[in-house]
Amino acid sequence: MDIYERIYSSLMGTAVGDALGMPFEMMSGKEIKLIHKQINDFYDIPEKNFLKRDLSRAQVTDDTFLTFHLADYLLKNNGKMDKDDYILDFARYIKTNKLIERSLIGPSTSNIVKKLLKGEKLLLSDRTGTTSGLVMKISPVGLIFPPAKKSLMLQIIEQTAYYSHYTDTAITAACGAAAAVSEAAAGSCLDKIISESIDMMEKGEKLGIKTYQPSVSARTKHILKFSRSAFSREEVLIFISEVIGTGISAADVFPAALVIFKLYADDGYQALKKAASIGGDTDTIASITGSILGAYKGYLSFPKKWEKDILQINNLEIQKTAEKITVLRSDFSG
């Protein structure tokens, strides 16, 4: 499998997971199963979902839009990140695409963008997001930089986080996601992907503003330990959804996504279905799962029909972006 296939499939996996989980965001896993015993395709938002958004079957959300924005920013700046320039570019992108008006932006991001667009000064409290707004978009960092560039990845992640999610919680989750994607894109084995992700999380925990949130790495290790003695993969999913939680906190979202990837790494179809139906922040959990899975399994990560639907329904330049990232990653691999 060549590197282009891994990069393309990671970007596509982000979009596929996002669109699969979109209809069920903030519903419980039990509620989802009452509507669909299994997630076998893209669906419209159920009437029972209290999140009323103007989105239809197979459409993507901020998870995908902001991933592609970060990819585009890093590509046009040759892999460099300027936190001041980035946040202004980010705010302009959100305004141009009316993501706030379309209810496609999370609370931490929405708050800082509104302030920036009004010309208001950001307070320290504005920068302390612990939600999933950073980890959801960070996969391009792992796609652009090979595993040998982890110190550079840390710098990029910290700069990206600076104005909205500059907390140990958000940075740790993003570090884990970027490392997992980077290792998967490099063709690393499953155990190494997980171990390097945890190692990067432990580095990330030393960065940012310290919070009261639980340790993302400790939670991940706890779920993995539980999974080794569980009777089935379904038991692990229940443990994640009913004990650990699958809310919008980065401390919920990333451990869930990484463990689901590990449990179902041999079957991408099942991995995405399980991530999209676990309940809570389903679009983000499934999109992160998809980003790692795509880098790991390539074109085998999802059915061709899903790929076709994503390309037909959403205006995404996945092939073009993947081609550019492939070239830039090669530059950093030399």
Q: Give the helix level as a range of percent.
A: 55-70%
Structural class: mainly alpha
**Beta strand %:** under 5%
Distance between the ends: 19 Å
Helix-strand topology string: HHHHHHHHHHHHHHHH
Residue-averaged pLDDT: 95
What fold name stands as the CATH topology? ADP-ribosylglycohydrolase fold
The CATH homologous superfamily is termed: ADP-ribosylation/Crystallin J1
The Cα radius of gyration reads 18 Å
Number of helical runs? 16
So what's the overall shape? globular
Please give the number of β-strands: 0
The CATH C-level class name: Mainly Alpha
Number of domains: 1
Low-pLDDT ranges: none
CATH architecture assignment: Orthogonal Bundle
The main pleated sheet reads as: none
Give a written overview of the molecule:
By secondary structure, the chain is mainly alpha-helical. It has a single domain, classed as ADP-ribosylation/Crystallin J1 (ADP-ribosylglycohydrolase fold). It is built from 16 helices and no strands. Helix 4 crosses helix 5. The longest helix has 19 residues. The protein is globular.
